[in-house]
Amino acid sequence: MDEISTREAALDEVISGAYVFTVERSARGYALNKMANSLSSSDNRARFSEDEAAYMRGMGCSPEQVDLVARRDWKGMLESGASIYLMLKIGAAVGVALPEIGAHSAGMTLAEYQARKAH
Amino acid sequence: MAIAIGGIGTSHAPTIGVAWDRGQQQEPPWAPLFSGYVPARAWLDEVKPDLFLIVYNDHVNQFFFDTYPTFALGVGATHGQADEGWGKRPLPDLPGDPDFAWHLAHSLVADEFDPTICQEMKLDHGVLSFLPLLTDTDWKVPVVPLAVNVIQHPIPTARRLYRLGGALGRAIASYPKNKRIVVFGTGGLTHQLHGAQFGTKNVDWDNEFMDRLETDPAGLSELSIQEYMERGGTEGVEMIMWLAMRGALGENVRRVHRNYTAPFTTGYGLLVLET
């Protein structure tokens, strides 16, 4: 376990504050990522929209993962092993696009991010 | 005899497809990107390829992490379109070229590259975002797609991609039928889609990369994945796939066209090379 943590930490240092998507993260976030992947079908998107928590529990997500999505905690999802590409599918299903997801993961609101970019 | 007549390096992004579908080709800030493709399309109209061999990456649309291949080759007669989460675009399925693709499978494995062979392969914006900018969407030119894992680490090295390009070149040269092939390397250029540095681009590195892809691909292939991520972002590492295109073209190439714009979160590059 120590060896795995060290390897992850080494990759995280590559880009300050980035969560490099390693196989270790992929394993930890597997249920959440698998749920997000299921949102590639319009039927599943409709079922998810009806009751997000029930849909997620049915897909094997943990209470913590259900909570992260309920709070739209994009940074928290990344920390728990979500892939940015699969978070974009969750975003598509709930009407949130990349700029807002990315800004949140950087610790900013969308407005703060856009203001910073304008300078 | 088949021949690699040239190569195209191009960025891909879902937003390019959205803008194209909405007819925003002439609108700022999209116009410099779309107009940049016009000379590339004119070149294709002139050289009349009969096959596109496209090295790209799937963004968890065809493959999920239950089974995520490092290299995957689409050998089907057609390639469908993936629903990336917001519904499919109004585009027909793409024609494939099973005969060439199976030749490529044999040749690559004999050359010690071992792709997962896919008789069905749904394509995402890694191919479909830029293709309508380069050809009519009745898709007269068949496509053989080769997907590379650049999103779940460990990912292959830049050197591996450059050598893969060499193997693609040998496969093309050994195909007995007449075929004029354009090889694509897609992805990048620099972008950081998450974390503290979200939205960071590196315009200098993007342009240095395009310079050196022409003149010093071997040098580019010696950089580590960590160096690519440091310079171009964790998602910008996709740009290593351009090295597969370059490796397929041999030593001497002539630049036909080059364009670069960076209006949003990604550096958008386009490079057309002729053998």
What is the residue-averaged pLDDT of chain B?
97
Strand order of the largest sheet of chain B: 6-3-7-2-8-1-10-9
The pair of chains with the biggest contact is:
A-B, 41 and 31 residues
What's the tally of helices of chain B? 10
Shape of chain B: globular
> So what's the oligomer here?
heterodimer
Low-confidence regions of chain A: none
Structural class of chain B: alpha/beta
* Terminal Cα span of chain B: 15 Å
Short note summarizing the structure:
Helix content of chain A is 71%, strand content 0%.
Topology diagram in text:
The complex is a heterodimer of chains A (119) and B (275).
Chain A: H1 2-12, H2 23-28, H3 30-38, H4 42-50, H5 52-58, H6 63-70, H7 74-79, H8 84-94, H9 98-105, H10 110-118
Chain B: E1 2-10, H1 14-21, H2 31-47, E2 51-56, E3 71-74, E4 78-79, E5 94-95, H3 98-110, E6 116-118, H4 125-128, H5 131-134, E7 143-148, H6 158-173, E8 179-186, H7 203-215, H8 217-221, H9 225-232, H10 241-248, E9 254-261, E10 268-274
Parallel strand pairs in B: 1-8, 2-7, 2-8, 3-6
Antiparallel strand pairs in B: 1-10, 3-7, 4-5, 9-10
